[in-house]
Amino acid sequence: MKKLLILSGKGGTGKTTVAASFLRFSGRAVSADCNADAPNLHLLMDTAGKPQRSASYHSRKAAISPERCMACRRCIQTCRFEAIQLYIAPKEPADAKTSHGRTHGKRWYCTVNPYACEGCGVCAHNCPRKAISLQEDAAGELELYQLRVGQLPQSHLGRENTAEELHHCIQTLSTARLKAGRSNSARLVMEIILAMEHADPDAPLAIIDGPRETQSLAADSIGSADLVLAVAEPSVPGIAGMKRILETAGTWQARTAVCVNKADSSPEHATAIRQFCQERQIPFLGFIPFDRQVPAAIRAGKTIADVDCPARDALLEIYQNAMECLNKPVPETQ
Amino acid sequence: MRIAVLSGKGGTGKTFVSVNLTAAAGQAVYMDCSVEQPEGRLFFKPEDAEETPVYTLRPEFDLDKCFGCQKCIQFCHFNALAYIKEKPALIPQACRFCGGCKMVCTQRAITETRHAAGMIEEGISGRIHVVTGVLNAGEPSSIPVIRSLLKRKAMAPVPIILDCPSGTGRSVMEVVSGADYCIVVTEPTLLGFHDFQIAYELLTMLEKPLGVVVNKADEPYMPLEDFCLEHQIPILQRFAWTPTLAQLCAKGEIAIRHDVHTAEDFRQILRQLQKEVLG
Question: In chain A, which residue's Cα lies nearest the Cα of B11?
């Protein structure tokens, strides 16, 4: 399986739009959406039924038993994440049903803020009353969508549908959905990618809509990709973001390529990006023009591949270039 | 008055709104909390920026004292310690500096040293105080830099605009919990609306008042309009996509200094904010 990881250093450059169109151009493929705090690749695809869900326990949280807690505050002192506070019950207990009532009339005890807690276990280790336990925390759910990928007309593909495609017109999309206020993590990104590989191990191509935060880019997710495609936007922040991605990918020695979205919104920055790539010998795959039909298609929940417009033609060319890059043998490094 | 500007989806124009809103306020503080990709300073170009490093702790091993009990490795929940050649070794990208390994070591073989996780950059751009948090590449957590950033206080009672990281994760929550009012920037598309709902869910959970700015609003997107009406969320402003505005942003210019209409639009947001926050 060849893995194409699509990234952008800045938000809104069109990562998901590119990933969705690539999926429509490809035949048998699997895909993953690593933006677990707000996944939306599936919104652009034709999903068959509800996703298959499974809980993801990629973290744990401390929990303090108020009955045992003596409010010695050792946990508060040792916690590096400022995740524990002292709870002081109101002076006059309103009624016995409040938490104050349930705690054997205790006036104060320590409580954990689950959002700040990282689950390191230092507080549990230090608690003299053994009042703290670490509990598995379901931060979210892994989701596996089946996508219906009815064949595109030949004119849209630039080639004929292969026999395999006609039979395997179902693709799998692996993603996850976090609860509000929980963060994506390198571990979760790996879980998503593993679930994707597991769903169809023989698929020749995997298209991964990468996480938007660079900190989630664990060594494994970027290192295992066969090609990292940076979708850049022609603007000062867009170029800064692209350089950050290339730098991060460089530290993992991943192969990279660049394409520019909304190219004519600022032609001088677009050419600057191409020049930058030529100087660094990074394959430059093409420009996607700013096309009024693109926002309209997204508003309607369609991919660009389904709309006959200049942006689609550009994307198809970029897709073919990317496949060429992907299938080129890796040059041997001395 | 602390105003957080956030968006579920990336690229909706968080930085555009927060930079211009700060500029429209005249005297104000701009805090860039998107520490992984701080972009506000590209617009403000602050002068005489002063840098203060943000430190976290990192364990160091005295291998002569270590006799290989592996207690530290068993304790580490972040899998940041490996046992290589009968000695513990640190994987710095995974370490969250909880201090657990030092605590369990019976031989006192572990000490902690300061390590720069990022920095805070402070500078002046006209009458605007620009404070930027910068996270070093490869750091596992942005929280230490964000916390240190939020602890900075304004010298005068001026509005503080907080430019949040993208998404709705933990770091956004950290910024938003200290804010008096939240502006959610969204765009009128299926994806924009989907992510807006997630941001709305987070803000209701935190009981924060919010308003919406719809960016790239060429046509109204009915599901979003209906949602705001139903949940009584004020739409503070709508910005249409224009080539002039796009050009200005691409060049790293502050739009309100070049375009009078945009300037008036932002002043209108400020007036409405005054009303919403001060009652």
Answer: A12
**Is B147 in a helix, a strand, or coil?**
helix
Contact A263, A270 (CB under 8 A): yes
B68 sits in the region (left: phi over 0; alpha: psi -120 to 50; else beta) called: left
- At how many degrees (to 10) do helices A236-251 and A267-280 cross? 20
Rounded Cα distance, A247 and B140, in Å? 16
Cα dist. B233→A191, B208, B227 in Å? Answer: 36, 12, 8
What 8-state DSSP symbol labels residue A216?
G
Dihedral over Cα of B184, B186, B191, B193: its sign: positive
A 10 A CB-CB count for B145 gives 25
Q: Which tokens hold the place of B159?
A: 């509005």
Q: Select from A246, A203, A201, A249 the least CA-distant residue to A224.
A: A249
Query: How many CB atoms lie under 10 A from the CB of residue A333?
Result: 5
For residue B216, CA distances in Å to B41, B130, B188, B251 come to 23, 26, 7, 18
Tokens found for residue B225: 């309009």
Tell me the pLDDT tens digit for each residue of A186-242. Answer: 778 888 999 999 998 989 999 999 987 765 555 567 878 999 999 999 999 899 889
Helix (H/G/I), strand (E/B), else coil: A63: strand
Q: Which of A11, A44, A299 sits opposite B10 (nearest CB)?
A: A11
How close A266 comes to chain B (CA, Å)?
A: 6
DSSP-derived secondary structure letter, A47: B
Residues of B in contact with A242 (CB under 8 A): none
**Could you read off the pLDDT of B79-132 as tens digits, one per residue?**
899 998 888 999 887 888 999 999 999 999 999 999 999 999 999 999 999 999
Distance CA A238, CA A247 (A): 14
A175 reaches B (C-beta below 8 A): no
A264: Cβ contacts below 8 Å, ≥ 6 apart: A270, A287, A289, A290
CB contact under 8 A, A180 and B191: no
Which alpha helices (H) appear in chain A, and where do they start and end? 15-25, 41-44, 74-78, 99-102, 122-126, 154-157, 163-167, 186-199, 219-223, 236-251, 267-280, 293-299, 310-327
Q: Are B234 and B271 in contact (CB under 8 A)?
A: no
C-alpha closest to that of A301 among A46, A6, A32, A54 = A46
Specify the pTM: 0.88
